[in-house]
Amino acid sequence: MTQTQSLDEATRLRGETKAASSDIMMGMGVRMSFAKDEEIYGQDEDADLIYRVISGVVRTTRIMSDGRRQIGGFYYSDEMFGVEPDGRHRFSAEALCDCSILVVKASALHAVAGDGAFGRLTWAATNRELDRAQDHLLLLGRKTAAERVASFLLDLSTRRATEAVTLPMGRQDMADYLGLTIETVSRMLTQLQSAMVVEFASTRSFRICNRSALVRMAQ
Amino acid sequence: MTQTQSLDEATRLRGETKAASSDIMMGMGVRMSFAKDEEIYGQDEDADLIYRVISGVVRTTRIMSDGRRQIGGFYYSDEMFGVEPDGRHRFSAEALCDCSILVVKASALHAVAGDGAFGRLTWAATNRELDRAQDHLLLLGRKTAAERVASFLLDLSTRRATEAVTLPMGRQDMADYLGLTIETVSRMLTQLQSAMVVEFASTRSFRICNRSALVRMAQ
DNA sequence: CGACGCTTTGACAAACTTCAATCCCCGTGG
DNA sequence: CCACGGGGATTGAAGTTTGTCAAAGCGTCG
């Protein structure tokens, strides 16, 4: 097999990850429940388990000694998380709301799926992580507060693909993801509303009124 | 092979990557020269080549439409870069100074190394990328200007492991890596010098006077 | 020596944070 | 059913950090 073929296959599989992982992981492992804000795993813990969101939303965080917090990402239904190639969690993971999580021993999955399928699965997951992280890098390094918030809403809406988008997280989580404070996030949201770009039905639900304007503001 | 074993092996191989890749890549591909600031590959280009620094330093960058720039990372001698699992470069790469780069067709390396070795090589490279990116995330999202600069100098010194560290990049590159401006970088450097934490012999060479203070400032 | 590019410094402006007060939504209990 | 209470969200005012603009310094290379 050539590298081109293998890359194509990796790319193809990315689109299928949900289906592929659910096929393979189906019926394996344990289904666990986590209450809101409960820790699923901690930073620097050994990572011999693989997780997949069944329902709810998960966040991964890294905390500095003085309490400053950076959220690495949010994980929604059917998404895998906690796949750590180095066997050690680089972030901790917590339930954003009450969650049901499928937990599978990596070794068990490996045994059942075989080298190839297991490799592709973890490979695709790692890849998506890297993609996320690199987009996040540009956002944190070079975007203004308004652009960060616009990017965030846009990203959420494309991931959810519904008319009215529900925000699963509170302002503090948004702020810690975007490298801002809750107050700044709040101000930017009101600003976006005043500009008739988005409209909030409540603090946890919004609708995009002018998508092209939002895209422009997100850069 | 169990997952635990494969993770152990992946971890073990990370430490050996230089040697492993040089063994496998030795004598393969083409050695190319790039002048300072010359582009090695562009963002969104197809990625069917793998690169390794022979001499010089490389930076990867992403640019916004209005010219704002974020540097993803710097690559030194013997480090691989440009390994893109999705077959498309997420950043562009440029020579920071005159560089000699080993360029290998991914398909050729795959054919010679075999599935296993090739997979481990790209796997390790992707892993290191992810590690870098996630540390970078915390830096950009939650650290102050002073902490960013301190972290940067510390990172550089540990990677180089010499008494006097040479900065291969100018202030603009540091700034674009740290999400700051050159003026702020410059001010933080003066501040670190005034505090007797580091000492600059010239603009491109420094020495750490008080490492524990630097560590503390980097958080 | 002089010109050019990069760095440093200063003064000021803008962006973002902090602190504090108020508001709003929602659930609870009278 | 309505008053009450609490947590999160919003808003305002003031403060801090960082960015911008401009000038001066420094080093290097013709």
Annotate the secondary structure layout:
2 copies of one chain form a homodimer.
Chain A: H1 3-25, E1 30-34, E2 39-41, E3 49-55, E4 58-63, E5 69-75, E6 80-81, E7 92-95, E8 99-105, H2 106-142, H3 145-160, E9 164-166, H4 171-178, H5 182-194, E10 198-202, E11 205-208, H6 211-218
Antiparallel strand pairs in A: 1-8, 2-7, 3-6, 3-8, 4-5, 4-7, 9-11, 10-11
Helix pairs in contact in A: 1-2, 3-5, 3-6, 4-5
Chain A binds a DNA duplex (30 and 30 nucleotides) through helix 5.
Look at the helices and sheets of chain A and give the structural class: alpha+beta
**Mind telling me the C-alpha Rg of chain A?**
18 Å
Low-confidence stretches of chain A: 1-19
Largest sheet of chain A: 4 strands, antiparallel
Using the coordinates shown, work out and report the CATH topology of the largest domain in chain A: Jelly Rolls
What gross morphology of chain A would you assign?
Answer: elongated
Largest interface: A-B, 52 and 53 residues
Estimate what percentage of residues of chain A fall within beta strands: 15-25%
Span between termini of chain A: 40 Å
Q: Give the total of beta strands of chain A.
A: 11
Oligomer: homodimer
Strand order of the largest sheet of chain A: 1-8-3-6
The domain tally of chain A reads 2
Under the CATH scheme, which class of the largest domain in chain A? Mainly Beta
- Compressed to H and E, one letter per element, the order of chain A equals HEEEEEEEEHHEHHEEH
- Write out the CATH superfamily name of the largest domain in chain A: Jelly Rolls
- Average pLDDT of chain A, rounded to a whole number, is 89
CATH architectural grouping of the largest domain in chain A: Sandwich
